């Protein structure tokens, strides 16, 4: 199962499912990462974490630990 | 009858700019998410009957963040007459997500699509008529920054509020979801008005406990939840969120024409460079260097010297011309007091107590204002969010935020602006942790103490000063790790899911407004808590019994003061640290006014009227009463313990909570005590081989400390009991 964490820079993926629960999941979904949305992985921070993605037309940064909760294809 | 209008919208959508435009009030505008933590009120320009309420910027009405809970509690219980929902037109998809939630509250809503000027430039268009029809509320286009149609939006909101027509949500989810919501709505009690039924039904489905506790009767909806979760194969909270976005996606193409050409805009180009994999850190370092160099070492130092030595000192020369000498405040006041024949003691209180004490604190203000200009600029242009992005990896290990770097860097110049700089950290826990640990970094005023100890006991050894910084950094790291695991800081980890706003050039007005607001909040503090503390300490230092007579003392008679007596009484506390002499206790206490006072106090106590900055006159006397180990212990204690009154005032201001203030100061002092004790006891064991009860305690403390460092976080009660046992055993 591929997650957003493993997605390489410059790749565009579609969200398949969100695992996890509670505040973190709700927050990620509130920010627009929901089933079926396209995510473009823009870049990784200089120290390797977090990552910056484009979703629904804006820039969002999230940690790799949280990106792991997002299953993509 | 006044009309209340609430401004609601995402962080960074221009809400605060609009608030300022409508009310003309002094409200800071930033460019990172979460700038408004408190709700603020203002009266509409030209209509005093209308109160505008600025709610915190929020993404959702979920129960998970402080800002969201504050905003929705206000909306549910205070029920403003209308909501003016501000939507960032350049980021409309995500902004509409909050709108769909606001529509359900049963409060009249009007939508203002902001940044219309930016949209025009990029060639995008939002069809407000269609948007209005699909969402069931009036929509206007505005530009808060340029002031386009802002008043018109406010007037429409006022009209809407007067009509009192509750907003009926017209957006719909999929038929399956709607059926379940319908079923729950029917179960709701009669105490809930029709227009709010959808809101409460959805909150019940989302299993929102905070809302449930506010309801008089809570119907059992577990069947509906189960049915929905089975049908959609997800939890209800996620299903509802999903449904909202599905609805938005379904109307977005119809409601706005996007610019299809994917050209990189200026913001993207800037970002490509400043957060580039290789360039980001050098650029970051360069920016930090400039901020530090200007606000701490150059302009900041001139400003502080001018304020401390000039305005609150011997006076200064206008434009550097010697002929135009402006006397300092003390001289002016002294002349005034002498002219009216003021009593000596009162003159002493006013000059040596109040003017000197508050002046020492106010002297930092010019430097702080310089720093605040930088911070406001970094925030408003959008770089601050990138700082968090770049530094997050390092700092989150210690329970700090990537943005903690700036307070700590500034703290190495002066702790007061350092603590104030923690304002830029939006997460409550990260901010508190930063406030508590920032003053561990040796500030400029602690350098004379370091120089004194290094010169008197270590022959000016090169490693003393760097080791002081090392002690400070170690204290920050260890504190972060330990505190992160305590109850006060534990709980759900705050997800680092942060918007990176587009770069833009901030307006001069905004920056100056931010600078002044922050500076002023500090000045106010200097007038209260700091004033009081300095008066008390002045009294203790200037009065005492001489030959059985209570009277005011001369500067060189500090030995006879109440403070000296008190110092003698508490000196035993410092005995295990190796400097249980009252002189050291008194010096440490006077360090609370300003840390460099420690050196001056030694001067007085050892019988010198004036000493140099590094106290070279008293090196000999000091070397006689201390060993290398006890001197280092004294140094460590003074580096880590409660900072000066000015910094404590800043901590009080930023914590905004007495309990947290005392916790912070108490923790710092306790840590300082423990660290100094271990330094002295173990240092003594190594240098002289003396082993005693103190050595055992030191080892126990170290074991306890290491345990606190390595124990699992989210500890259960068992380990807490163990900690208590360890503490009792000592």
UniProtKB/TrEMBL annotation, chain A:
Annotated Pfam families: FeoA
InterPro entries listed in its UniProt record: Fe-transptr_FeoA-like, FeoA, FeoA_core_dom, Transcriptional_repressor_C
A molecular-function term among this protein's GO annotations: transition metal ion binding
Domain of life: Bacteria
Key word Iron present: yes
Signal peptide (from-to): none
Keywords: Iron
Ferrous iron transporter FeoA-like domain residues: 2-73
Segments crossing the lipid bilayer: none
Protein name: Ferrous iron transport protein A
Species, as recorded: Lachnotalea glycerini
TrEMBL record, chain B:
InterPro entries documented for this protein: Fe2_transport_prot-B, Fe2_transport_prot_B_C, FeoB_Cyto, FeoB_GTPase, G_FEOB_dom, Gate_dom, P-loop_NTPase, Small_GTP-bd
Location(s), subcellular: Cell inner membrane; Cell membrane
Keyword terms: Cell inner membrane, Cell membrane, GTP-binding, Ion transport, Iron, Iron transport, Magnesium, Membrane, Metal-binding, Nucleotide-binding, Transmembrane, Transmembrane helix, Transport
Positions that bind GTP: 9-16, 34-38, 54-57, 114-117
Organism encoding this protein: Lachnotalea glycerini
Name the record gives this protein: Ferrous iron transport protein B
Function: Probable transporter of a GTP-driven Fe(2+) uptake system.
NCBIfam families referenced in this protein's UniProt entry, alphabetically: feoB (TIGR00437), small_GTP (TIGR00231)
Domain FeoB-type G: 2-163
An annotated Gene Ontology molecular function: GTP binding
Membrane protein topology class: Multi-pass membrane protein
Keyword Iron among record annotations: yes
Transmembrane segments: 278-295, 345-365, 371-389, 433-457, 463-483, 522-541, 561-577, 584-609, 629-648, 660-683, 689-710
Family: Belongs to the TRAFAC class TrmE-Era-EngA-EngB-Septin-like GTPase superfamily. FeoB GTPase (TC 9.A.8) family.
A single Gene Ontology CC term: plasma membrane
Any matching Pfam family: FeoB_N
Highest taxon in the source lineage: Bacteria
Positions contributing to Mg(2+) binding: 20-21, 23-24
UniProt entry tagged with the keyword Cell membrane: yes
């Amino acid at each position: 199962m591929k997650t957003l964490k493993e997605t390489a820079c410059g790749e565009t993926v579609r969200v398949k499912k969100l695992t996890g629960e509670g505040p973190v999941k709700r927050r990620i979904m509130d920010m627009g990462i929901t089933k079926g949305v396209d995510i473009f992985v823009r870049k990784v921070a200089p120290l390797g974490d977090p990552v910056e993605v484009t979703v629904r037309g804006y820039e969002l940064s999230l940690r790799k630990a949280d990106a792991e909760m997002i299953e993509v294809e | 009858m006044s009309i209340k209008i609430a401004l609601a919208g995402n962080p960074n959508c221009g809400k605060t700019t609009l608030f300022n435009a409508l009310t003309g009030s002094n409200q800071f505008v930033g460019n990172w998410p979460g700038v408004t933590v408190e709700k603020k009120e203002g009266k509409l320009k030209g209509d005093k009957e209308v109160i505008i309420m600025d709610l915190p910027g929020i993404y959702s009405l979920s129960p998970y963040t402080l800002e969201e809970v504050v905003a929705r509690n206000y909306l549910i219980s205070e029920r403003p007459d209308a909501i003016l929902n501000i939507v960032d037109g350049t980021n409309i998809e995500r902004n509409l997500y909050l709108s769909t939630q606001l529509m359900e509250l049963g409060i009249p809503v009007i939508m203002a699509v902001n940044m219309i000027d930016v949209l025009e430039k990029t060639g995008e268009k939002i069809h407000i008529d269609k948007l209005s029809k699909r969402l069931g509320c009036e929509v206007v286009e505005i530009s808060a920054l340029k002031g386009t149609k802002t008043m018109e939006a406010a007037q429409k909101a006022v009209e809407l509020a007067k009509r009192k027509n509750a907003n009926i949500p017209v957006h719909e989810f999929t038929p399956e979801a709607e059926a379940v919501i319908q079923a729950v709505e029917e179960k709701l009690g009669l105490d809930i008005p029709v227009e709010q039924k959808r809101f409460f039904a959805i909150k019940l489905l989302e299993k929102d406990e905070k809302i449930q506790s506010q309801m008089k009767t809570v119907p059992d909806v577990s069947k509906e939840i189960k049915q929905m979760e089975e049908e959609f194969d997800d939890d209800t909270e996620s299903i509802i969120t999903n449904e909202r976005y599905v609805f938005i996606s379904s109307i977005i193409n119809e409601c706005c024409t996007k610019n299809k050409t994917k050209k990189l805009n200026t913001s993207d180009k800037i970002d490509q460079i400043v957060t580039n994999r290789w360039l980001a850190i050098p650029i970051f370092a360069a920016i930090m260097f400039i901020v530090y160099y200007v606000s701490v070492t150059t302009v900041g130092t001139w400003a502080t010297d001018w304020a401390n030595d000039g305005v609150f000192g011997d006076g200064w020369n206008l434009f550097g011309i010697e002929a135009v000498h402006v006397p300092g405040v003390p001289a002016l006041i002294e002349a005034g007091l002498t002219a009216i024949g003021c009593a000596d003691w009162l003159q002493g209180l006013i000059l040596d107590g109040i003017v000197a004490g508050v002046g020492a604190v106010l002297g930092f203000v010019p430097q702080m204002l310089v720093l605040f200009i930088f911070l406001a600029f970094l925030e408003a242009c959008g770089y601050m969010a990138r700082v968090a992005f770049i530094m997050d990896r390092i700092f989150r290990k210690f329970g700090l935020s990537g943005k903690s770097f700036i307070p700590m860097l500034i703290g190495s110049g002066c702790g007061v602006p350092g603590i104030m700089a923690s304002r830029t950290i939006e997460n409550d826990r990260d901010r508190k942790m930063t406030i508590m640990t920032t003053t561990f970094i040796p500030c400029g005023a602690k350098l004379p103490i370091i120089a004194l100890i290094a010169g008197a006991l270590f022959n000016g050894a090169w490693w003393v000063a760097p080791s002081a910084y090392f002690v400070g950094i170690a204290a920050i790291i260890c504190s972060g790790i330990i505190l992160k695991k305590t109850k006060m800081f534990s709980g759900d980890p705050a997800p680092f899911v942060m918007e990176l706003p587009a770069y833009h050039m901030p307006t001069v007005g905004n920056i100056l407004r931010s600078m002044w607001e922050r500076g002023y909040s500090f000045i106010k503090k200097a007038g209260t808590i700091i004033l009081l503390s300095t008066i008390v300490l002045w009294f203790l230092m200037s009065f005492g019994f001489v030959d059985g007579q209570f009277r005011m003392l001369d500067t060189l008679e500090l030995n006879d003061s109440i403070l000296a007596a008190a110092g003698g009484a508490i000196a035993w506390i410092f005995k295990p640290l190796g400097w249980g002499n009252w002189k050291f206790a008194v010096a440490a206490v006077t360090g609370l006014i300003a840390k460099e006072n420690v050196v001056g106090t030694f001067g007085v106590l050892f019988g010198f009227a004036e000493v140099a900055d590094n106290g070279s006159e008293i090196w000999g006397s000091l070397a006689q009463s201390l060993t290398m180990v006890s001197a280092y212990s004294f140094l460590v204690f003074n580096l880590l313990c409660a900072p000066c009154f000015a910094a404590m005032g800043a901590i009080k201001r930023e914590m905004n909570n007495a309990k947290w203030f005392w916790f912070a100061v108490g923790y710092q002092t306790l840590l300082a005590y423990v660290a100094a004790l271990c330094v002295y006891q173990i240092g003594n064991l190594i240098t002289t081989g003396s082993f005693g009860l103190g050595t055992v305690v030191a080892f126990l403390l170290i074991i306890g400390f290491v345990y606190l460092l390595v124990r699992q976080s989210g500890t259960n009660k068992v380990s807490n009991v163990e900690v208590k046992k360890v503490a009792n055993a000592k």
